[in-house]
Give the backbone structure.
Amino acid sequence: MVVRSAASGKAEAFDSRETAPLASFQTMYDGNPASKSKGALSMGVPGELAGLHAAWSRHGRLPWKSLLQPSIALARDGFRISPNLADSIQEKEALIRADPGLRSVFVLDGQLLRAGDTARNPALARTLAAVAADGPRALYGGAVGEALIRDVQDAGGLLTMDDLRSYNFTVTDALTADALGYTIVGMPPPSSGTVGLSMIATILAGYGSPESAAGALGVHRLVESLKHMFAVRMNLGDPDFVNVTAYVSEMLSSSFAEKIRRRILDDATFGPEYYLPRWSQLSDHGTSHLCVVDSERNAVSMTSTVNFPFGGGVLSPATGIVLNNEMDDFSTPGDSDPDKLPPAPSNFIEPRKRPLSSMTPIIVLKNGQLAGIIGASGGLNIISAVTQVFLNHFVLGMEALDAVRHPRVYHKLIPNVVKYENLTTTGGEHIGLSAEARAFLAERGHVLSPVGVATVCQLVVQDLRIPVDSRKEKNRGLGEGEGTPVFHGLLTAVSDPRKGGRPAGL
């Protein structure tokens, strides 16, 4: 999560993602590699609650208890199953039916819940009520945590109360980088999105014109830049365990970007070995994202995850909490596949370590003023999605909605395949890469494969040309120590139509 105060201009990064349990070790999945992604053994120490409370304690204004009430009501009274959630329930039927906790929420009278049905999680409502009353200590040292640990250990997991009590979030200065005339503010490693987006933007800037990112040739250049970026980013890891300073500096440098750009040919693509890959790619998955701007232009960009859809496939009956399977984002020496390169030692499992992530929550600034917020869900495809939406709006000049709904492409370096969107949204809109662009890519040697909804991106932009009310603008507060007025332009919020989302505001 990235939080920026409009008054001070200061941006903070809250890293409260899951960490490896104290009992974790490299060989814990030997003989049963599936347990790294499925079941209670795949669970990392949960951190989101600690991070949210920390952000609230620094920047919040409403009472803590009041913030929990809408979630308590949703869990207690129920929420309607959306078409996209119904599809996920259907797809994961075997997983849901195999777990008593998930079954209690998503199965009624022996039948899977369908779109329009109501799902309820009374155990989670009780958990959230305890958190509302007692704060994070309800989980990290109280009755909620004790109940969770019992359920996790009964399901075969390693999590202990010592893991919960010793959990620590980190708050650092946000990572700041230049990107095609804008300043992007985001998460430092072990999140790789900010440095990844900046590296791609700097490569494209070397072509000397915004039009270099336009059209089918722009798509080709983007794909090539993505492949180089994914090859480099596997040097990153948790900076508390791995020295990533030199790698981050290199990925942010214009000289390194120019070196990469010279290796990009406008008429050809190459196999993975051309891009100097060092290690295999992660297989990170599902997330959710939100963007918030308030009336004072304070901004929050937050990505959260339980990793896979329905996490590790276990819901704690006593607490209603879905267990994440964040351990699957780590590399292990046993991750061997003849079609992949060796696993990354910088991302090997160690107690209290955070795995490398593709999360890309960013805040975009222009001349010190808020220009926009972007973030996405979609696992390894997040960096590609956020980069394309950034380019579409801030570089190519698309309107905010067009920038989000424009067809996207994705590449992971391994496998060496361009995934291109070909989907119909829940609202009936078709989104697909044009036949001309597909032909252009194929002529250059790209292997193409269609994909449905791979990412969902959220965007809020501020029009920096004219204040909403120029008379009021004269009375706005100044930035602390800078004497810089906080600009108040028209805000436009866009929620991705790919899953039928819509902006919310007061």
